[in-house]
Write a structure and sequence with these properties.
single chain; alpha/beta; 6-stranded mixed sheet; 3-stranded parallel sheet; 8 helices; 19% strand; disordered N terminus; phosphoribosylaminoimidazolecarboxamide formyltransferase activity; Bifunctional purine biosynthesis protein PurH; AICAR_Tfase_dup_dom_sf
């Protein structure tokens, strides 16, 4: 198993997409993991400097086939529908609209002109939407989701998600990667200190003197100019939405955070406004024709 970067939110469980070959506990702490098979004997406890903690290992059954229908009971009313068996792949993203038609697909191979990374990111983001609650947008970059958000206001959840994406990109700033940590600083403390640096609250909500105690030498906080310059370097981000984007400010907001490709079902009476906004910003817009609502 490769090194895993734990999420700062919801660390009780950890899904792993590859078979686990090394089950020995190292620096991560979580209560259970869900993995695609194990080639080792999972350890039952985690010696983490505190009391030994139980870890539950759950293996995925590769032969499992879900039922064709799903049932739910809502206030005594039983509802049944066909399960969402949509397959998300490169062909999901062939309907490029607007004048930025820079995607040429060859159905006998892989998409030609849209780079493979963008297609992979669109697939990752859209699969994440398939299993998320309705009214969700998801940003992806370099093969992994940056964030996702679920709100009744698409404009609000897109803005909130973009802030998460912004902080994730700031964590890759050279100054952040080169922080001179004291050897005694633990993993969680490092992550918290980085969050403070990237969120822009240093000197406001958190005192600089308190924050500096983690380092072997004085560290200069990121200035607004540093943040703006670094954020401008983030490009190639994709955004996928499980419902049509209703307003052009959704596109204006996405552009601020390096989004270059947007996929959504289309079909809104405001489609022309969305297409026009994407054309203005040089964003490739794709209509999937696929609504991935999950209630």
């Amino acid at each position: 198993m490769h090194d895993i970067e734990e999420t700062r939110i919801g660390k009780f469980g950890l899904p792993i997409t590859s078979p686990i070959s090394d089950c020995s506990p190292k620096t991560l702490f979580f209560d259970f993991d869900l993995g695609d098979g194990y080639s080792c004997i999972p350890s039952c406890t985690i010696p983490n400097g505190r009391e030994l903690q139980q870890r539950v290992h759950v293996g995925v059954n590769p032969n499992y086939i879900p039922t064709e229908t799903e049932e739910r009971t809502v206030y005594g009313l039983r509802l049944r529908q066909k399960r969402n068996n949509a397959v998300i792949n490169a062909t999901t993203f062939i309907d490029v609209v607007g004048k930025h038609n820079n995607i040429v697909l060859d159905m006998s191979s892989y998409p030609l002109q849209l780079n493979k990374t963008a297609i992979d990111d669109l697939i990752v983001a859209t699969i994440a939407l398939k299993y998320a609650q309705s009214n969700t947008v998801c940003l992806a970059h370099r093969g992994q989701t940056q964030s996702n958000a679920i709100y009744h206001s698409i404009a609000y959840h897109e803005s909130s998600e973009s802030v998460t994406d912004e902080n994730g990109w700031l964590r890759q700033h050279p100054q952040v990667l080169a922080l001179p940590w004291k050897p005694s600083v633990r993993r969680a403390e490092r992550s918290n200190a980085i969050d403070v640096l990237c969120s822009g609250v240093l000197g406001d909500e958190v005192s600089i003197g308190q924050w500096q105690q983690y380092f072997t030498e004085p560290v200069n906080p990121l200035t607004p100019e540093d943040r703006k310059e670094w954020l401008a370097k983030q490009t190639g981000v994709v955004m996928s939405s499980d419902a049509f984007l209703p307003f052009r400010d959704n596109i204006d907001c996405a552009k601020q955070f390096g989004v270059m490709y947007i996929a959504h079902p289309g079909g809104s009476v405001r489609d022309e406004d969305i297409i026009e906004a994407c054309d203005e910003h040089g964003i490739t817009l794709i209509h999937t024709g696929l609504r991935l609502f999950h209630h």
